Amino acid sequence: MLQTIPARRGKAAFVEKGQRIKVINTHGAQVVDTWAFNRDDITEFMSMEHTRATGHHIIPRIGDAMLTNHRRPILSVMEDTAGGIHDTLMAACDIYRYQELGHVGYHDNCTDNLAAGMRAIGLAPPETPSPFNLFMNIPWTIDGTLSFDAPVSTPGCYVILRAEIDLVIAFSACPQDILPINGVACQPTEAHFEILG
Amino acid sequence: MLQTIPARRGKAAFVEKGQRIKVINTHGAQVVDTWAFNRDDITEFMSMEHTRATGHHIIPRIGDAMLTNHRRPILSVMEDTAGGIHDTLMAACDIYRYQELGHVGYHDNCTDNLAAGMRAIGLAPPETPSPFNLFMNIPWTIDGTLSFDAPVSTPGCYVILRAEIDLVIAFSACPQDILPINGVACQPTEAHFEILG
Description:
2 copies of one chain form a homodimer.
Chain A: E1 2-5, E2 10-15, E3 20-25, E4 32-38, H1 48-55, E5 65-67, E6 73-80, H2 95-100, H3 110-119, E7 132-134, E8 157-163, E9 167-173, E10 191-196
Antiparallel strand pairs in A: 1-10, 2-9, 3-8, 3-10, 4-7, 4-9, 5-6, 6-8
C-alpha cells in the first residue's frame, strides 16, 4: 500500500525484518530525511557515523548495509534508480537552521517532523540521529569543500531498502524552502513509500 | 598547566568563554577524540553534522567555527601545526567496534572514555556525539571511498581551539590498537592539553 509522506511533514511506520521499503521521489526533487530505530530498543538506531566507519563510503551504495550505533546492520540498500546521489553528512534541519538562514518565526523542520511522525505511532525518538538524506545532493571536492545543490533525481525514482531487523522507519519530506536543496523552485513536495513483503 | 590525557583514557575539564585549549600530539601519532558541551546545558554540544552544514568543509580549517546542535559556535580553530588533517566523519570507537574487529572481551574505547572523563568531574554525557577526531587521518576520494590511515602528524604538533561559550571539553586518547589509526606500531600513547588564558 502506497503511503504518503505529506509535503513538509514526517511519517513513521513499523517494518518487519526481511520486508523491503520502497521510498519514492514522486515529484523528482524532494529530499527525504530517513531514520531507522530498532523496534525492540529504540535507543539503538541507524547511525551515519557508524555506517561510514564500516562501509568506507561517504554515500552508501547498492549492497551496502546501514549500521546502528551498535554496529549491526539495520537496513541494506537493495535498489537505487536515483543515480546513487544521497547524503550522510548533514544534520536534519531544525528551528536553529531556519533562524541561521534569516527566517523569522516557526518554520517546519525535519527534526520536529521526526518527533511528530514517531509520536503518531506512540513513540518518541531518544535523540535526533544524523539522518540518511535520500535524494539530497551534497557534492564534495578533493579538498573537502561541500555544497548544497539541487537534486539530480527524477520524478518517480526510488530507493529500496531491506529491513535487517524489526524496526521503526521514519521519514521527513524536508521543508527546506530557502536553499535549493529540494529543487531550484524551492517548493517542497510530498513523497511516498511502500512496505513490500 | 599541562594536563595529561593518559594513553587509552579519557579526560574532561571546564573551560571559560574566551580561553584557548591547546591539544598536543605529544608523541606524534595519537588520535584524540574531542567533544565539547555547553557548560550551562550539556544537552547542547558540538556536532559534526551541524558544523559541516554551516562550514561547508569536511575538515574544519583555521578560522572555522565548530557549531553545536543548536547551530551556535562553541569552539573555533585558531592554530594547527598538524597539517590540517583531522576527522569529522567517524564515530567514536565503542565495545561494538572491537567486537566487529574480532577482539574478544572488553577493550578500552573512546565512548566509555568520554563517559569516564566526564564522570570524574561530576557529569554524564547526554549521548555520545560524533567526535571531532583530532590528528585522525581519514582520506576520501572523489568517488566517496574512505580509508583509515596512519596519522601524518608529528611529535609535539598541536591544535589551538578557542572556547566561544563556557563549556566542558572532553578528550579520549583513542585506544585503537588493531587498525593503524594511531600509527603503524598500533601503540596508543598519552597526549596532553593546556588551557590558556
